[in-house]
Write a structure and sequence with these properties.
heterodimer, A: alpha/beta, Ubiquitin-like (UB roll), Alpha-Beta Plaits, Rossmann fold, five-stranded mixed sheet, 21 helices, about 15% strand, globular, B: alpha+beta, Glutaredoxin, four-stranded mixed sheet, 4 strands, about 10% strand
């Protein structure tokens, strides 16, 4: 039976929409919301989506299921007044410096105040200004702009399963903040920035590096080069109201804009993506044929990399050791370009334009610098690039198209689709499985799709190759748990932290409708189609770089330039609980692991025995005993560290032996 | 080794509650009974043990006024500032106690960790207003002089 309800006097049929709000929006009525995102759980806090349902009164549409025969009114005097009042109250304590706010013009609070015609706020501002949090490279947190909608909290917890920020305190003191009111830098934040993407106001925004870039450009001694990531071309147009640009058009206009702005050369990160595929596929074929370190995780997403380093340090070796395309580009540029242009390495400034906030963090990883110089000097997001174009007064829609510079600007379609979830996998398959003379675009398109976890099995010389394509870190956690606890087998797993892959990155122009994501995905696949080559290994400039500088994929030289290492960042590792602290200035540190698996293996009893031993030996003053978390040797617990010695499967006898030898070192 | 006893007790509390994240509140209550407050590193430990984010634990611990993240004094003075007590000038009592204990405007605990002063909304003994509770003893119709004497008595007791 067809289900029908009436909205503002018109009949609409509905199906399986989970709430009234979705039905109303389908009827093209833009009900305002702050706390509703179809990807997240329904929170029902902002009360802006109130509608009148006949015989039931005023209800929040987001948390009311649609029913057959409902008669709904979305706009009447009472509702209008109510909405106005809500926004007015939100604005009362809001830091209203709209003109200088990073979110200006994409702020939902600003838009709503305009839409509802709020020009005067009747309530007194009693807010005490809180300091902003500039601690990370990726994001800025401004508590004075927060409307407590909780979108960021739910995204971080529900989609990414990180939970770096949460509500704290209550009533008028309520705030969203990292644990213990500390800064974001000291939290578990992986810098994916999706909190900033869903934030309706300027409480969480990507950190801008635009002024650094302008400075570099106006320094006559510097040669400033820039490289554009694949996903940027799928979204830059949105910032200028152009929603149907092709990838080629957008990229061509960006090159013109960047050249006009004053960049010496404009390259394409898709070139480095081609190189990443060649290296990563080589690494994978090695691992696959030897059957070791499988599954291989992709390592191009910096938020995912930090996630593994922090929660699954025992699986770091599963990460591909390849740098991300940005990492490879920076390193290659600093290696190749100074000689090519006859300049000093210190005078070359490498800038990348990324759809991503975590890339800003990645660029500062100490592993990605050489001789004290970072490989990538500054990272701009798509939003920041759009702003620079605006600032320089260029009319983006009227720009002509120019071509990228060579050698680091020539790419195949394999490098371009990197920006989509599934793109890396597809490009790897093109590299590993496509016949030498084939130039087929759609051969491996079966890995495409919109689901957060997609699995497929490909047959390689009679051997099954099990592939998973994942986006969203919560989905990644599910897959990792399946591997660890349910012994599920995969050979290759692509993980992107952001929904839809890089095209859905937090550095892209702000979007609220999921259709935008599909549009961007389509844009990159279309771009691939029109390019001349599709297999990364066919890129003549990639071949030339190998020939001139790196010998062959997987060579020592290639490893030096294109690979990296990853470090454990087990959360709370630096925050052990002190049980006993000796009086002596120098003490022997004894750390007993209290991680879950060590506790199951008896670390609590062991700690007690160690303390008794310390008393028996009368060395209380000379030792410091701590309960720590996880030395990442869970399979061999209980783990105890005594001085510099880490003892696995520790017994009191082993501990005593180690204490006896190590105590001498502090005497 | 005095720390160990407490730590061992916390491990026991976690075990008793089956390390169930749904039992976070009873766990925090029990741990606060052990330490008389919730030390930050202990909250981090609890978060790890229950496999929830420290931000969530911090959120719960700061939401309920029952929990405190700052060490409290040995003796807790709860002054009622509910409507009846307020009318009967409970604010004067608070001022008197603060002066007596040499506490600054935003300070709630004395430097020697002997006293903590708190205000509560209603103790349900409005007939005795103004009311206060020191540790577990209820005192009704309190005057600044009476409070001063009660505090002196505790101080004397402590000196012994």
């Amino acid at each position: 039976m067809e289900k029908i309800l009436t909205i503002n006097g018109k009949k609409f049929s509905f199906d399986n929409e989970k709430n009234l709000l979705e039905v109303i929006r389908k009827a093209n009525i833009e009900l305002p919301t702050f706390c509703y995102h179809s990807e997240l759980s329904t929170y029902g806090a902002c009360r802006l989506c109130m509608v009148n349902v006949e015989k039931r009164g005023i209800l929040p549409a987001c948390s009311t299921p649609p029913e057959n025969g409902m008669v709904v009114v979305t706009n009447n005097e009472e509702i209008r007044e109510m909405r106005k009042m809500i926004v007015e109250l939100l604005l009362a304590n809001h830091d209203k410096d709209c003109t200088s706010c990073h979110k200006s013009e994409s702020c939902q609070l600003q838009t709503l105040a305009r839409r509802l015609g709020i020009h005067k706020i009747r309530f007194k501002n009693v807010m005490k200004k809180e300091p902003q949090d500039f601690s990370t490279y990726s994001l800025v947190r401004d508590p004075n702009k927060c409307v407590l909608c909780g979108d960021c909290v739910r995204f971080c917890e529900e989609i990414q399963t990180v939970g770096a920020i949460d509500f704290a305190h209550r009533g008028s003191k309520s705030a969203v903040c990292p644990s213990f009111g500390k800064d974001l830098e000291s939290s578990e934040c992986v810098y994916c920035g999706q909190c900033a993407r869903v934030c309706p106001t300027g409480a969480l925004t990507p950190k801008s590096e635009v002024s650094h870039v302008w400075n570099a450009l106006s320094n006559k001694n510097k040669t400033v080069v820039v490289a554009i990531a694949p996903a940027v071309r799928a979204a830059i147009g949105e910032a200028f109201g152009l929603n149907n640009e092709t990838g080629t058009e957008a990229a061509g206009k960006m090159v013109t804009a960047l050249k006009t702005i004053g960049f010496a050369k404009v390259f394409d990160i898709s070139f480095a993506a081609d190189m990443t595929i060649v290296e990563e596929a080589k690494e994978f074929v090695d691992r696959f044929s030897k059957g070791e370190k499988l599954p291989q995780f992709t390592s191009c997403c910096p938020a995912w990399v930090k996630f593994v380093e922090q929660y699954y340090p025992d699986m770091i070796e599963n990460l591909s050791s390849c740098r991300s395309p940005q990492g490879m580009f920076g390193s290659l540029a600093k290696k190749v370009l100074p000689e090519m242009y006859g300049i000093k390495k210190e005078d070359l400034v490498v800038i990348s334009v990324m759809p991503c906030t975590a890339k800003k963090f990645e660029a500062r990883r100490p592993e990605l610098s050489k001789d004290g110089l970072p490989d990538t000097d500054f990272v701009l997001t798509t939003q920041e690039l759009a702003r620079m174009i605006e600032e320089s007064g260029l009319s983006f829609k009227d720009l002509e198209q120019s071509a990228f510079d060579v050698p680091l600007g020539f790419k195949t379609g394999g490098g371009v689709i990197f920006g989509n979830s599934g793109g890396v996998t597809e490009a790897v398959l093109r590299n590993v499985l496509a016949k030498e003379d084939s130039n087929e675009v759609d051969e491996f398109s079966f890995v495409r799709g919109e689901d957060g976890i997609r699995e497929t099995t490909v047959s390689v010389n009679g051997k099954d190759l099990k592939v998973a394509v994942v986006y969203g870190l919560g989905n990644a956690r599910k897959v990792v748990r399946d591997i660890k606890y349910n012994h599920k087998h995969y050979d290759l797993i692509e993980v992107m932290a952001c929904p839809g892959g890089c095209i859905g990155g937090a550095g892209q122009p702000v979007y609220n409708s999921l259709d935008v994501r599909s549009k961007r995905t389509k844009c990159l696949y279309e771009n691939d189609k029109v390019l001349e080559l599709h297999k990364p290994q066919d890129n003549p400039y990639v071949q030339k770089i190998y020939k001139d500088f790196l010998k062959e994929p997987g060579s020592h030289e290639a490893h030096e330039c294109l690979h990296t290492s990853h470090t454990s960042r087990k959360r709370l590792a630096e925050n052990p609980f002190t049980i006993h602290k000796g009086k002596h200035e120098k003490t022997l540190k004894i750390n007993v692991c209290f991680g879950t698996s060590c506790m199951l293996r008896g670390s609590q009893k062991l700690l007690k025995s160690i303390l008794e031993l310390v008393e028996k030996k009368n060395i209380q003053d000379k030792v410091e005993v701590q309960a720590s978390f996880c030395f990442e040797k869970c399979a061999r617990g209980p783990v105890v560290r005594i001085g510099s010695k880490v003892i696995t499967k520790c017994t009191i006898e082993l501990a005593e032996k180690a204490i006896d030898t190590e105590i001498k070192t502090i005497a | 080794m005095e720390n160990y006893g407490k730590f061992d007790r916390v491990c026991q509390i976690l075990e008793e509650n089956g390390k169930d994240k749904a039992k976070l509140i009873p766990i925090l209550q029990a741990v606060q009974d052990v330490y008389r407050y919730l030390p930050e590193e202990m909250l981090a430990f609890i978060a790890s043990s229950l496999n929830i984010s420290p931000a969530r634990v911090y959120g719960v611990a700061t939401f309920f006024s029952h929990f405190t993240l700052k060490p409290k004094g040995k003796h807790i003075i709860k002054v009622c500032d509910g409507t009846a007590c307020h009318v009967k000038k409970s604010t004067l009592l608070i001022d008197a106690i603060k002066t007596k204990l040499k506490l600054g405007a935003s300070e709630m605990t004395t430097k020697d960790m002997l006293f903590t002063i708190e205000t509560v909304s209603c103790l349900g003994a409005c007939g005795l207003a103004p009311v206060m509770v020191i540790d577990n003893d209820v005192h009704g119709q309190v005057t600044p002089e009476k409070v001063s004497k009660l505090i002196d008595d505790i101080m004397k007791q402590e000196e012994k």
